[in-house]
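Intended use. Records like the one below are meant for learning the mapping from a protein sequence to its folded structure. Do not use them to infer anything beyond what is encoded.
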Amino acid sequence: MRKIIGLILFFGSWLVYAVLVFIAVDSEWSIAEKLGIGTALYGISWATMIIGSILLGPEFIERIKIMIRPKNKK
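Structure written out for the chain above:
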């Protein structure tokens, strides 16, 4: 159950960026409102990614590090 919640939080944090694009192009809000909502969503995105990573455990973090490591570096 812990890993499922971790996966939902980790990958769900990326969905916030779609909402950020929607907020940026929506003309009903003022620039100040867009900035405030965007900043809050960005912070929430990072928080959910970190919490999801913690719940998934260190082995998941190591797999992510291997995937993003440059191919020519050993």
